[in-house]
Structures are given as C-alpha cells and as structure tokens.
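Lab notebook page, bench 4
Experiment: in silico fold of construct C2
Operator: M.H.
Input chain length: 289 residues
Purpose: comparison with the prior construct
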Amino acid sequence: MAGAYDDRDGKIWMDGKLVDWRDANVHILTHGLHYASSVFEGERCYSGKIFKGHEHSLRLIESARLLDMTSPYTAEEIDAAKEAVLKANGFTDAYVRAVMWRGSGEDMGVSAARNPVRMAVAAWEWGNYYGDAKWQGAKLDIAKWKRPSPETIPTAAKAAGLYMICTMSKHAAEAKGCSDALFMDWEGYVAEATGANVFFVKDGEVHTPLADRFLNGITRQTIVQMLKDKGVVVHERRIKPEELDGFQECFLTGTAAEVTPVGQIGDWHFQVGQTTRDIAADYEKLVRA
C-alpha cells in the first residue's frame, strides 16, 4: 500500500461497521481535533496474529477513562473490530491503529460531555520504523522539550495530546540527520524517545528508566520480563544523563520500533552488542511464535 494515508484502497472499521478507506471521515468540528480528546493504540500483526492485541484493547479503554471518556465498546468488541479490519484488507503482517475520540455533537468548547465517543480501526503494511537503523543502530538527538510531571497530565494514557512535543522533537532530530530524539523528564532524568522506551546495557546488566512518569509500554514490559527470564539483571531506576557515558549498549523498544539498537545519542556512542542482538532475536521469535 502506498500514497497519502487519506487516499488509499481498503477498508477501515468505524463506529461498528467497515467503510471504504476514503469515506472514513469526521466533521471539522470534531472535539478531538480541537481539544486533543483522543487516545489510540499502535499494534503489530505477525503471521495473522496481533501481538498482545487484547492487552492493547484494554489499554485503549483505560486511556479513554483517564481522559474522562467512556469507551462505547468492550475489549472483546475492539479485538473483533481489529480482526475484521485485517480480514477485510487481506493482511497477515500489518500495523494496526485503533483510535477513540470525542466527536462532534451538542458541545463545542472545552467541556464536551454530551458529545459521542467514537472509534475507528485502520491497518496497513509497514516495515521497519527506523529503516536501516534496525540493524545498524539509530542516531538520536536530545530533545529540548521535557516529559511533563504526572501532576500536570495523565502520563499513563496513550493520548494524542502527549505526542505534540514528540512530533516537534522528531522533526528537529530529523533535520539534524537523526532518527529520533531522547527526552529527559521535568526533573532532568532520562525518560524515553518520541515513540519508544529506552534501555541501556552495562557489564551484561540492563538499566531502564522507571516507567512511573511516562507510558509503560507493552513492548517495554514484555522485554523486561524476557530479560529477567533469561537471567539478565534489570535495573528499573532513575537514570541521570551523565550516566550515558558509562553504558556500552543502548536499544529502543515499542510496537512500531520493536527492538532497535541505538548507536549514538547526542555525543554519546554505543556499540550494537550481544545483549541487544540477543533480545532482538528473542523478541522476533516470540511475536511470530
């Protein structure tokens, strides 16, 4: 599939039924467009099976709740919608995007309790999120923006508004020839990339920022458990940026990123080492099992 995302062949599930791709539209006064009352999930389907699809459906519902929206669908109904989209488009390996938002209705202001909560599911074929960096190691910029305090915004939600600084930071990174950008949190500790969690390796042990102030990714949780099952010591803790000089390896995790090695962050350099290669291979086996 190629071309602009609003001009493609195929089917999108929208509010309970499959519609033609080009007809999956919303009104210009949709509340989510104006006030970011929108949550979403990104998932990958491997060989006809969505990896941890039900967990993603549950998180979508929880993200909506955190934004004061009640999902009009159960997790099981969302699972069925995703399967229907894959079948309708004939995909066995694809990226799946489920999105839920406040639509247009009687209210058009900050308050929109009377507006309906709507939902759609789309899927498309998508290769490596970071291209050749999947094998060679991504190059990351340091974002000028900070991840906000959980006291200022529901950081546990996969919400559209939380990605505004991600878009700006990734644009700035790409302009410098980088694949992505690394965020610090509001206290100056290492947080995450624009769409992926970050891990570091030192002397065979793994260190990753404690995920209590940004989204605890489903892929992140999977990788942490896989490492522990392999007997690798995993430290989930606050990491100061000056510590990056002492790490030998670095990798990113996420549904889109999968497991992607990092070769450089700012002025810090890392090797694409054995720990990273092993966990990437193990993850590939797991998702296709």
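Observations: The chain is about 25% helix and 30% strand. The chain has two domains: 11-124, 133-287.
Next step: discuss at group meeting.
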